[in-house]
Structure formats: structure tokens, C-alpha cells
Amino acid sequence: MAQLIDGKAISAQVRNEVKQAVAERIAAGHRPPYLAVVLVGDDPASASYVRGKAKASAEVGIQSDTLTYDASISEQELLDIVQRLNDDEGVDGILVQLPLPDHIDDRKVIHAIDPAKDVDCFHPESVGNLVIGLDGFQPATPAGIVEMLQRTEIQTSGAQCVIIGRSNIVGKPLANLMLKKGLDSTVTVCHSRTKDLPAIARQADILVAAIGRANFVTADMVKPGAVVIDVGINRVDDDSRERGYRLVGDVDFEAVEPIASAITPVPGGVGPMTIAVLLQNTLRAATGA
Predict the structure, then answer these.
(1) Are the beta carbons of 277 and 14 closer than 8 angstroms?
(2) Are 109 and 82 in contact (CB under 8 A)?
(3) Least packed by Cβ within 10 Å: which of 54, 85, 145, 264?
(4) Which pLDDT score is estimated for 289?
(5) Average pLDDT over every residue of 208-228
(6) CA angle 232, 235, 238 (to 5 degrees)
(7) Angle formed by the axes of helices 7-27 and 271-287, nearest 10°
């Protein structure tokens, strides 16, 4: 039976570390770190994510406000808001919740954020620092995956790491993190045009599924003893549940778990780590570390 990599427990460790560091900072006479979250429109999923971030911030002593705007806000008005937050010395971190309404160019807004306050690590300067190995903010979900691997003492040096999915949020930044000195993996990134993807996946010592397709990774794609990291969160219909659906990952957990040496569950795996790293980044923004 595979070791279950408990994202909730590891996330709690990270949050406790941030909480202690924030308390020490306040005891030394500094103000608490401050995170400004910008939410545009009334998308239920975005609102839920933002509430979760606000709750987590409060639990570790980070101050935060959610600045909520109607979906009709113009692109220029939103850019002006971001600039005001850039100029405010009391604001350490800025997070603009995506997606934005269709009439607003996400890239323009992300590019407008001061890289020193870019706790989501989406700004081109932040991404560039990651690619060339400079210190800076860590992209939340990929860095959360690395935390999980390191805190469960999974060997990454020399490991074959296969990532299924090439998104700017997970696949690409995770590839760059796993290549860094200290992690030292050999990385292959697969996508929808990859030939014979199952054969490549079977080469993985560490297999990461981040493709957004329920139960995509099946048992025949996993090498015995591989570590399997499931980033996906997908809704599938389930009449037996009160809400009419259940959450599953990109990995067929029941089929793959007996083959893997370690595996993340969904929910309760990678998901909790994302907010934990956001808190780390906000603390780093406040301290300038």
C-alpha cells in the first residue's frame, strides 16, 4: 500500500511556521504583513477561493482585505487600483483573483503588479527569476508540491520527473523548480501532443498529473514504486452524494494507489499547500527576504 502524502498535515506545519514568524516579527515591533486581494465580479468559485485565503491569513496573523468590484469595472479603473496598491507602503502583497471578466486583459493587470508585491508569482519578472534560478517568490501550487516532496523525504536528486500538463500555473513553473540545484531532477513535460504519453509516464520516478481531466492517469501509466502527485480537482456526477457530485483528481486513485510508493489524495493533497505557500510569500514580501 502506498504512503499517503497528507497535504492537510503538511500545510498545517507550514502555516504554523508562518504564524510563529509573524508573531516574532510583531514582537520585534514591526507591523503584521498585509495582503490585498482584488476580486472582480461574482464568480462563486473565485469568491470561495478568496474567502479561504482571507481565513488562512487571519489564522497566521497576516492582515488582509478583499477589495471587491463589480464585473462592469473598466480595465483602466482596475489598473489604477493596482497602481494605488503598488504605491501604498502599507501593502506587502497584491493578489488579483483570476479569471477576470472578458473585457479585461489578464496579462495587462498581472504585468501592472509591482514584482516586489507579486505574491502569486505571475509577473514576468517573477517567472524570469524562477527560470534562471534567482531567489524570489515561489509559484504557489508548484512550490507546495516541492514542500510535500521534501517534507516526506522523497528523493528528487537524479529522479526522473514526468509532468503531465504544461500550464503557466503548474506544469511549466514546476518543471523549473524540479530542475533547480538542490532538487536536481531530470524533467520531462508532456502535453496533448505528446506521442505515446503512457510509455513516457511509465519512466517516471515522480509522476505529476496536472492536466484537468478526471481519472486520466491509469494504472498502466505508472511504474511500480513511483511517487504520484495529483494536482487535478474535477467534479464528477454522483447521485449518492447530497450535493450530487464528488471531487476526484487527474489520477485514478483506486487503481494507481496499489502500484505507487507514495500518492497524494484528492481532496486533501496538493490543494491545501497552495494557500500555505501564498502565506509564505506574503511573509517574505513583508520582510524583504
Answers:
(1) yes
(2) yes
(3) 54
(4) 65
(5) 97
(6) 135
(7) 20
Say how far apart CA 30 and CA 22 lie, in whole Å: 9
Rounded CA separation 137/116 (Å): 9
Predicted structure pTM score: 0.95
pLDDT at 56 over 80: yes
Q: Among 126, 125, 97, which Cα is nearest to 109's?
A: 97
Q: In CATH, which superfamily holds the domain spanning 140-271? A: NAD(P)-binding Rossmann-like Domain (3.40.50.720)
Catalytic machinery residues: 53, 97, 120
CA distance 92 to 144: 21
Whether 30-114 and 140-271 share one fold: the answer is: yes
Task: Write the pLDDT tens digit of every residue in 83-101.
Answer: 999 999 999 999 999 999 9
Query: Considering only the top CATH level, what class is 30-114?
Result: alpha beta
Grid coordinates 498545517 are at which residue? 12
Radius of gyration of the chain (CA): 19
CA 165 – CA 212 distance, rounded (Å): 8
Q: Are 273 and 11 in contact (CB under 8 A)?
A: yes
Residue with cell 482584488: 38
One-letter amino acid at 127 equals V
Q: E-strand spans in 212-284?
A: 227-230, 234-237, 245-248, 262-263
Residues ≥6 apart with Cβ < 8 Å to 34: 62, 63, 64, 90, 91, 92, 93, 286
Domain ranges for the chain, please list them. 30-114, 140-271
Residue where the block lists cell 447521485: 239
Query: Smallest Cα–Cα separation from 228: which of 200, 199, 259, 197?
Result: 259
pLDDT tens digits, 68-84 = 999 999 999 999 999 99
Q: When comparing pLDDT for 48 and 244, which is higher?
A: 48
Q: Are 121 and 281 in contact (CB under 8 A)?
A: yes
Which SS3 state, helix, strand or coil, does residue 276 take?
helix
* Rounded Cα gap, residues 225 and 205, in angstroms: 8
